[in-house]
Amino acid sequence: MGELKVKDKDIVVPGDELADGMDFLPAGGAFREGDKIIASQVGVISVNGRLIKLVPLNAKYTPKKGDMVIGKVAAITNNGWFVDIGYSNEAFIPLRDGSMEYIPKGADLVQYYDYNDYVVADITRVSKDKEIDLSMKGPGLRKLSEGRIIKVNSAKVPRIIGKQGSMISMIKQMTDCRVIVGQNGYVWIYGVDPVKELVAVDAIKRIEERAHIHGLTDEIKTYLENKVGVKNAVQQTI
Amino acid sequence: MNDNIIATHVTNLLDKEFRLDGRKLDQFRDIKIEYGVSNKSAEGSALVKVGKTEVVAGIKMEVGTPYPDNPDEGTIIANVELLPLSSSEFESGPPSVKSIELARSVVDRGIRESKAIDFKKLCIKKGEKSWIILIDAYSINDDGNLADAIGLATLAAIKDSKFPKYDEKAEKIDYSEKTKKGIELKESPIPVTVLKIKNKFIVDPTLDEENAMGARLTITTVDDGRICALQKGGDVPLTEDDVEKMVEIATKKGKELRKLFK
Amino acid sequence: MPYNKRFDGRKFDELREISAEVGVIPNADGSARFKIGKTIAIAAVYGPRVLHPKFLQNPIKGVLRCNYNMMSFSGSGERVRPGPSRRSKEIGLISEKALEPVLDLGEFPGAVIDVFIELLQTDAGTRCAGITAAALALADAGFPMKDLVSAIAIGRIEDKIVVDVSKEEEDYEGGMADIPVAMMPRTNEITLLQMDGFATLSELKEVLKTAKKAIEQIYKVQKDALRERYLK
């Protein structure tokens, strides 16, 4: 016996009662308090049988092993680089993971990555004290040299990437831009055509604002078509 | 703070006459002015938004003793606070050098040097009592160009002001009663900050553009286009030619911005 | 002397007009504005971020740091000199204590969550407005919270209990007690309770009962503000 007080796709806020009764199981930003299941964050409800999951609409990034992130070099020591990834701790690239090529001890680390350089890196380890290790060894991991960086809320990253990358691929194709979306919400965008680059930026910001909307993919597709011209989209399918 | 990649991009885009947000080089973001936002307490107030940059300014009036060398004049005191609420770059504590520069070079200098307010009209009793106009501006959100936003907000707040009732005999101000008398403004000084990046000039910079700056010149003009205040910033020098161009741009934009106050 | 009619004509259990909006400061991780009558409070949250100086860091859990400030022109008389005062420091501290119970600071060891509260205009009920705005800003930032926190100033004027004390009532020179209350509305757990003035235990019980009802109204406005952001 139990009563579900919300339905799938509802938007809830902290303190909202989601269900009454021990039948239901909370997940994501939902928690159990006695008999009730309560929302702890602003988010969207996903009901799956007895599982009530709250997907937060706004969240601070929590670093996880395996995440690809974009960060800014904040400090350089003899042993590596400290990188700001928008988390309360800075992440660290140790010398041995600094590059695909071997970096000898005593090398001038500034030559590889300088202060304020932006890099794309993988998280290799998150300790229980929230110390984060990064590696630059891997395909696509590198220092960024042109283009712009924008910051979006990390909770919106899955929406911006889309199922199997469908959303971000659509944006890249239709605007002729190169885009890398870091799991930490830092996004790199570069387009040869500045007008189209701005369209890509606006599209991404739009997704961030409307991540909770149903049918967002079509909405963004239409937006891009209007801005860039349908001709462009058609060319891609030929 | 210098962001290498974004600063490079700003500069490269400018070579193509393009800005990060698609504006023209001499184009301001959308400006909104809201009057009287705090007028239960302030004698005058205004909130200004320039794009996402937001500032609020308020006017309080006090009666004090005039300075001995100007016994028949009142005065203004300007204060700017860059609140940590408005940006992760600002810290709590006493006024920073940046906020002092804004208070002195934008607010105070703009009003004082333009003779916008006739200080003699602030005199109540020569040598004994005169009005002091206290101007306070606060940043609410910093997305670049706080200087111009603060200039517009303080001007709007002054225009919005009404003197409180003053009992000369009792020497007391009744703040709960406002008179119909406002602060007479002979000029409307408007600051326009022009940035030089490489060899291009832009107005109303966003934060990313400010971080790419070579040099900036804040030029305050009055109603007929004369310049009443200048302040150069940034560590790149300006040529005479640069200054001429920047002043031309600022004078033109000052005229346009003045229309916001009609 | 019985208090039969409130100075501003409100009913004894009537709040002034309240409104709330979130996401008002784009740079902040979360932000909100809360108005009650003519009192206007804005709050911005930045964090979790690194806490400097290091000796303030707590290795076991994060630190919540509230900074309360009134704008110089926000007071009802003379200009308020800028800078922290003893009063603003006290309000910062009690605001922290009012908000901590709903947060899980254990998730952010060594870090700080900075909450900045600014008053644009003050007309009584300022610390409560600040706490209400701050709770909204924390929710807007996405921090998991057990509940929101809502606050209201209840008063005892002579023989009556009143909701949302006005400035005139605050300044009343006869028998008066000013009682700011903050609660977690779902469970009515009290996270802030202060009193200036005299009250009997039975009066206090009535105060808390009255606060509960008033807080329900504030809670609704807070929740609506959070939802509204996504209803477009």
Under the CATH scheme, which architecture of chain C would be assigned? 2-Layer Sandwich
Give a count of the beta strands of chain C, DSSP E runs of length 2 or more: 9
CATH superfamily of chain B: GHMP Kinase, N-terminal domain
The ordered string of helix (H) and strand (E) elements of chain B is HEEEEHEEHEEEEHEEH
Count of discrete domains of chain C = 1
Percent helix range of chain C: 25-40%
Q: What's the helical proportion of residues of chain B? A: 25-40%
Number of strands of chain B: 12
Helix-strand category of chain C: alpha+beta
Shape type of chain B: elongated
- Kindly give the count of domains of chain B: 1
* Contiguous uncertain segments of 5+ residues of chain B: none
Can you walk through the features of this model?
The complex is a heterotrimer of chains A (238), B (262) and C (232). Chain A is α+β, with helices and mostly antiparallel strands and 238 residues long. Chain A has helices at residues 157-161, 166-175, 194-209, 216-228, 230-237, and strands at 3-4, 11-12, 17-20, 25-28, 30-33, 36-39, 43-48, 51-56, 68-76, 80-84, 91-94, 118-126, 132-135, 148-151, 177-181, 186-191. Chain A has a five-stranded mixed barrel. Chain A has a four-stranded antiparallel β-sheet with strand order 1-3-6-5, with no helix packed on it. Chain A has a four-stranded mixed β-sheet with strand order 2-7-8-4, with no helix packed on it. In chain A, strand 10 and strand 11 (91-94) form a beta hairpin. In chain A, helix 2 (166-175) packs parallel to helix 4 (216-228) and helix 3 packs antiparallel against helix 4 (216-228). In chain A, 40% of the residues are buried. The model of chain A is unreliable at 232-238 (pLDDT under 50). Chain B has 262 residues and is α+β, with helices and mostly antiparallel strands. The two termini of chain B are 38 Å apart. In chain C, helix 1 (86-99) crosses helix 2 (126-141) and helix 2 runs parallel beside helix 4 (201-228). Chain C has 232 residues and is an alpha+beta fold. In chain C, strand 1 (18-22) and strand 2 form a beta hairpin. Chain C has a single domain, classed as GHMP Kinase, N-terminal domain (Ribosomal Protein S5, domain 2, 2-Layer Sandwich), CATH 3.30.230.70. In chain C, strands 1-2-3-5-4 form a five-stranded mixed β-sheet. A four-stranded antiparallel β-sheet of chain C has the order 7-6-8-9, with helices on both faces. Chains in contact: A-B, A-C, B-C. Chains A and C meet through loops of A and strand 3, helix 2 and helix 4 of C.
